[in-house]
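Risk register update: the risk of archive-format incompatibility is retired. Evidence:
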Amino acid sequence: MLVHGLGDDASSAQWVDVHRALADRARVCRYDRPGTGDSPVPSTAGRGADALDAELDAVVRHAAVEGDVVLVAHSFGGYPARVYADRHPERVAGLVLVDALDPSVGVVRGTGAGSFEDVPMAGERLDLRDVERAAAAVEILPGDPPVVVLSRGRGASPAWSAGQEALAALSPRSRSVVVDAGHQIPSEEPEAVVDAVEALLDELG
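Archived output:
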């Protein structure tokens, strides 16, 4: 399951190359959260962690995925993936976090915005404070799923790099890989994501 990031141009389109490359190996799903890509703007504002979790769960169930799910999440997408893995451990086999946001950095600093209200989010109408609080509450993932942390090798601040180390602490079965790319690893170096997912699938058997 491919989970995209946040921003005025955020959508599942960022995963096209990764999706295509993995399609022969596994069933691959990607989706646009409400207010992004081809999904309509939600009718209600203030959508928090519960809404994001319910939406991701609905996609997983609608896709009728057989067996456990591997969540592959980029940037802000790491928040809903983290919460989902905490709330549905029986559904999650592992995670690949692609230069994902950690609450130690926070969405305001991570996006360079001046405040939560200034964070670009297309038409998602999110309560970012609530989403961030929920993600921060997940310090250790239940069940110790394998986690691969893919981090940018270019342009990362010391705080961002420390956040990547914090992500690796989500599970004792984690490993970290630094990619020679900027933040947009899914489009800049999709093969790095593909390699990480395939290695995780091999580990899971």
